[in-house]
Amino acid sequence: MQHSVSVQEADFDLSAEVKALTAGNNLAGAVASFVGLVRDNNDGTGVADMTLEHYPGMTEKALDEIAIKAGERWELLGVRIIHRVGHLMPGDQIVLVVVSSPHRGNSFAACEFIMDYLKTQAPFWKKETTAEGSRWVDARVSDDEAMAKWRDQIGM
Amino acid sequence: MITVMFFAGLREAVGTSSETLALPAGVSSIAALRDHLVARGGQWQALATAKNLRAALNQDMVALDSAIKDGDEIAFFPPVTGG
Questions:
Q1: Which of A20, A133, B54, B75 has the smallest count of CB within 10 Å of its CB?
Q2: ipTM score here?
Q3: Cβ contact (<8 Å) for A123 and B80?
């Protein structure tokens, strides 16, 4: 399985990433992708913009490990993960996961696993600006629950 | 020497993003390092009051009772919120 991860300020292009992941490899019968976007509200408060902080070095290492774990669990051909950092506006793309595999079941499952894992294990922190000022976003219990589901199912 | 790093709200609370210090005598775990830093008082109390404090050792997320040694890079931070 080939995989690559990027942590960057620049935006990304889903179709270009899908093409790059599948180029020259006709074993892939399926590509599943997820794109996360910045919302303009959170917990009932309007969000004007946000800043993403991360832990350089550990971030790339954590994303690498997530991709490798997915490849150990499912039959995959390729994994591409991009996570943006820095200043972002509502509507902006923030995260991309693309997974290719011979059959769709593995791509669907691995794509969801990678996002659930990333949400609780990759060292990113969101700070959002609202009408009342700026605030760090609290982690969601539902994200931990989504991760726990995988631990129960596949022992990860 | 060890490197200690702080991120996000915790970085703002303690007022620094990283510092290098000699591994204090008797400190052999991340939890003990936290106690050592909290004992400085003032803004360092934030390490004691932070709810759901997380830590990384040499860029792997670990439990607070993990052992540390000279040369390690330790990071403290709130639960992550990426994605």
A1: A133
A2: 0.95
A3: yes
